[in-house]
Every structure is written in C-alpha cells, then in structure tokens.
From TrEMBL:
<feature type="binding site">
    <location>
        <begin position="139"/>
        <end position="144"/>
    </location>
    <ligand>
        <name>ATP</name>
    </ligand>
</feature>
<dbReference type="InterPro" id="IPR028606">
    <property type="entry name" value="Clp1"/>
</dbReference>
<comment type="subunit">
    <text>Component of a pre-mRNA cleavage factor complex. Interacts directly with PCF11.</text>
</comment>
<feature type="domain" description="Clp1 P-loop">
    <location>
        <begin position="136"/>
        <end position="346"/>
    </location>
</feature>
<keyword id="KW-0067">ATP-binding</keyword>
<feature type="binding site">
    <location>
        <position position="58"/>
    </location>
    <ligand>
        <name>ATP</name>
    </ligand>
</feature>
<dbReference type="InterPro" id="IPR032319">
    <property type="entry name" value="CLP1_P"/>
</dbReference>
<dbReference type="InterPro" id="IPR010655">
    <property type="entry name" value="Clp1_C"/>
</dbReference>
<feature type="region of interest" description="Disordered">
    <location>
        <begin position="107"/>
        <end position="131"/>
    </location>
</feature>
<dbReference type="InterPro" id="IPR038239">
    <property type="entry name" value="Clp1_N_sf"/>
</dbReference>
<feature type="compositionally biased region" description="Basic and acidic residues">
    <location>
        <begin position="119"/>
        <end position="129"/>
    </location>
</feature>
<comment type="function">
    <text>Required for endonucleolytic cleavage during polyadenylation-dependent pre-mRNA 3'-end formation.</text>
</comment>
<feature type="domain" description="Clp1 C-terminal">
    <location>
        <begin position="370"/>
        <end position="491"/>
    </location>
</feature>
<dbReference type="Pfam" id="PF16575">
    <property type="entry name" value="CLP1_P"/>
</dbReference>
<comment type="similarity">
    <text>Belongs to the Clp1 family. Clp1 subfamily.</text>
</comment>
<dbReference type="Pfam" id="PF06807">
    <property type="entry name" value="Clp1"/>
</dbReference>
<keyword id="KW-0547">Nucleotide-binding</keyword>
Length: 492
C-alpha cells in the first residue's frame, strides 16, 4: 500500500535569514527552492529540485536575497533566525579572495623570479594565497565555517580549487574517523548527512563515482584524541604537509587557491595537555605554511594564539553562529556508525513519502549506493601492525635500573591468533604498497604510507587461521599491510 504523502510546508525567508532544522534518527527531510536564492553552508540550491537530508542532519538554509522554500518531512526542531554571522563570514571570504587574486597576479607576473627569492622578498610574501587554520572549542562551527569558506571560493568564478584539510580525527571528513586528509575542492561541497560532513569521497566507490566525488589523500592516525599519540599525529601532519608541497610545486594554480584546515576541538580545549596541543598546532602552522589563524568565538584562545603567533601571522577572531548545535556523546557514537555504514554501503536516505526525484546534494540517490564484499582470508594474507603499543617484556625482566623504552612510533606486529589481539570488529586501514625500489625503502616507511581503503574484521577463526573481512572494494588484500587503531565497528 502506498504511504500517504508527507505534509509539506512553505517558508518564506527574508534576506539574510536562515531556516534551521534538526532531524531525529530514522527521519528525512526534503527541501525544494521555489523562488529566490538559497544555500546550505555556502552550496547553492538549484530551483525546483528536492534536496534530501537524513541521518540526524542538523543544518540551515540561508538566503542572501530572500526566498521561498517548500519543506517536506518533520524535523524535531525547525525555526527561522535573522541573527546569523554570515556577513562576517562573507567579509572574511572577500579578504581571502583578495589574497588569492594578489597571489595569482604575482604568479603571472613573476615567472622569472625563482622560488627561493620569492620567500625572501617581502612584497611577494604579501602576495601569498590564504592558508587558513580554523581553531575553536567544541561545537563552535569550525567544520561549517571551513565548508562555507571553501564553497564561496569555488563559487567565485575564478576557477579556484582550494585544498581542504581535515585534521579532525573525531569526525572522519571524507572517509572514516581516525584519519587526517586533504583534497582539492573543485565544486561546492553539499551538506546532507553528518556521515559525509565534507561531501562524498570517491575512495570507497570504485565502480560508481558520483560526479562531485572528491579524491582525498588520507593518513591513518587511528584514535579520536590527539593526546593518545601526539608524536604520531605530528609526524602525519608533516607528511601530509610534504604532499601538499609536492602538489603545489606541480600545480601552481592550485597553490594560489590556498588551503583551509579544519581542526578538532582538542586543538583548543584545556583538557588536552597544553604542550601536546601547542606542538600539534605548531606542526600544522609549519607544515601547511599557515598565514591566517581563525579563532571561532573564544576570547582566551584568541589571546593565546596572538601570544604564540601574533607577530608572524594574521590572527582573526570570528563569531560563532547561534545555529551550531551542541552534539552529545551518544549523537557522536551514532554519527560514527553512520560514517562506517556509509563508507561500506554508500549513502542510503529514504525520501519522505510523496517526494519524487529527490537528490543528495544534487546527486541522484542511486549514484551513492555501494555493495561491500565479505571475504575470508588467511591470517598470513595480511600483515597487521599497531603503532606504538607497549608489548615488551615485563619491567621485572629488564636489567636492574634499565628504563623501559617505549617508542610511540614503533610498529608492533599484531598476531590474529592471540586472544588479546583486538582484531575482532576492528577498523583497519589498508596502506598503499611500500616503495617497489628497495633503495628508496627506509625503516619507518610504514608510518608515512597513505591509506588506500578501510576494512573491518567481522569474524576470526583461530583454529583454521582465517578471518572474515568486510570492505567496499573488491580488490585482493593478499600481501598487503594494514594498521589497526582504537576504532571498532559492528553492523547494527
Ligand atoms: N547555522 C546553523 N544552523 C543549524 N545547524 C548548524 C548551523 N551551523 C552548524 N550547524 C550544525 O551544528 C553541528 C556542529 O557544527 P560543526 O560540526 O561545524 O562544529 P564544530 O565546531 O566543527 O564541531 P566539533 O567540535 O565537533 O569539531 C553540525 O551538525 C552542523 O551541521
């Protein structure tokens, strides 16, 4: 029997106001722009096309000029606000845009100036593109601001493709939590589900690529908190920074588009060890050659950043939006499940009854469905390491007075046949192959390899030395190397 069509309501929004909504689990919402102009965190809506939101999405439809939207479905919260910080964000975008334009003219006008001189020359330093680090406490809207600024840059009509860098290991960015990643953004990032906070990545979908899928470069840290292994985090940041440098050297036009780094709340929070926090921020500032730090709504952090970097960089305080929703622990757990499920199965959101031709951020729904494969492999097929675990002999077995040396960077082989291996339900990062040229290999190469995909160990058969893995890619894992962290996932 057909379900009755869900109730639709029209909202007319005055210029510079936004319609905010929050969804309950298992519900969805379709928003159609009937007239005027509207955008979701900087990504414009096309007229007469239903945009679908799900997985407890919390977002806002903002309009600069005024609009009428039709909303179908029942959010748990919905209201219109006329107090938004969007003009402050737009002014900031204009300032960043001027930096890009100046950097582009310097690039076009200074082809004979060699790169080393460029760094020394103060006038060309003034023509540097924006490389922005966004810091702020929990729920200040950092990710949203990163998205808005990136979307405004790609919409500017200058052909910019800024690099968006996700340092938030609690959130997952394009793939799964526990990662840091970067991707050049060529078209506006849509918002439709917290499972894809930065839009869809192409990594888990080799067969069906949605047209706006991004191909990020991903590194596996493996834990939600930077305190767990801050040395590893710093090393990964520097490795990612090197790759960004290579990309910029090869593609100066991408370089002038600049870069925007979204960070986790632990970069700002007093609960993180101050030294670790400062070290990781310093690694980001140096590795990505940051020249602007945006501090979102936090006076103390602003003063702290001024003190640390005020003489070298621009430190800018920006207001927090009243619409940012405080996300509790159980919500974050559910979002983690949505992210892993989406990584494996693609994004499946059922439109409210009666809504036809719904899109996810402008993409047809079927484009985003995947079929993962469950495969049985032998223990020896895959070599699995944990970084920095303490697995040495007990202290009593050490020579008297000898300190225990625990390297946070030490790769420790994981034996799946050991009861405490922690492999069951573990999320594993499958690494790219080692350098085929033996002369280029080095001891710690494992720490610097990017991720090519993720898998989850769904069962372990110790007597037969076999395990079952679930992965969205059909490729064989035989002979590959994977890393375990502290994330586990079970299908629900
Ligand atoms: N203006 C708004 N109206 C409605 N919801 C919003 C608005 N701005 C942000 N949100 C929502 O609030 C939530 C938190 O925002 P966001 O993720 O940007 O904050 P954050 O500071 O990056 O969070 P975290 O501390 O977890 O890193 C998200 O679900 C986001 O979609």
């Amino acid at each position: 029997m057909d379900q009755p069509a869900a109730e639709s309501r029209k909202w007319t929004l005055e210029p510079e106001t936004e319609y905010r909504f929050e969804l309950d689990p298992g519900t969805s919402l379709a928003v159609k722009l009937l007239r005027g102009q509207a955008e979701v965190f900087g990504a414009e809506l096309a007229e007469a096309k239903p945009y679908l939101f799900g997985c407890e999405c919390k977002a806002a439809i903002f309009t600069w000029q005024g609009c009428t939207i039709e909303v179908t479905g029942r959010p748990s919260t919905e209201y219109v606000s006329d107090e938004t910080p969007m003009s402050a964000y737009a002014n900031l975008h204009i300032a960043l845009e001027q930096m890009r334009v100046r950097a582009l003219s310097a690039l076009n006008g200074s082809s004979d100036e060699d790169d080393e001189n460029r760094d020394e020359n103060p006038s060309s330093r003034r023509a540097e593109p924006p490389r922005v680090l966004i810091v702020g406490p929990e729920h200040s809207g950092k990710t949203t601001i990163a998205k808005i600024l990136t979307n405004y840059a790609v919409r500017a009509g200058q052909g910019w493709s800024p690099l968006l860098v996700n340092m938030d290991t609690t959130e997952g960015g394009w793939v799964v939590p526990g990662t840091i990643s970067a991707a050049p953004v060529h078209s506006p990032i849509a918002t439709y589900s917290p499972a894809n906070p930065l839009g869809s990545a192409a990594t888990s979908a080799p067969m069906v690529l949605s047209s706006n899928a991004l191909v990020p470069l991903v590194y596996w840290y493996g834990h939600p908190s930077i305190n767990r292994n801050h040395l590893l985090m710093e090393r990964l940041v520097r490795t990612l920074g090197h790759h960004v440098d290579y990309k910029w050297d090869a593609d100066p036009e991408c370089r002038v588009s600049g870069l925007i780094v979204d960070t986790p709340a632990s970069f700002a929070s007093s609960s993180s060890a101050v030294d670790h926090r400062h070290q990781v921020i310093k690694s980001c500032v140096e590795s990505f050659k940051i020249n602007v730090i945006l501090v979102v709504g936090h006076e103390k952090l602003y003063v702290e950043m001024q003190r640390l970097y005020g003489t070298q960089l621009n430190i800018i305080k920006i207001p927090k939006s009243g619409g940012v929703v405080e996300l509790d622990f159980s919500y974050r757990e559910r979002v983690f499940n949505y992210q892993l499920h989406t990584y494996m199965y693609g994004q499946v959101i059922t439109a409210p009854p009666g809504v036809a031709d719904a899109t996810l951020g402008g993409e047809a729904l079927t484009d985003l469905v995947l079929a993962p494969s469950s495969t049985v492999i032998k223990f020896d097929d895959l070599t699995i390491y944990r970084i920095g675990a303490e697995t040495m002999a007990p202290t009593s077995a050490l020579p008297i007075g000898a300190p225990r040396v625990v390297s946070e960077m030490q790769p420790v082989l994981v034996d799946p046949s050991q009861p405490g291996s922690g492999l069951l339900n573990a999320v594993l990062a499958l690494l790219q192959p080692f350098n085929p040229d033996e002369n280029e290999r080095y001891d710690e190469e494992l720490l610097d390899l990017p991720v090519m995909g993720f898998l989850v160990v769904t069962s372990i058969d110790v007597p037969n030395r076999k395990m079952t893995i679930l992965a969205p890619n059909q490729g064989s894992v035989v002979g590959r190397t994977a890393l375990i962290g502290s994330f586990e996932w079970q299908e629900q």
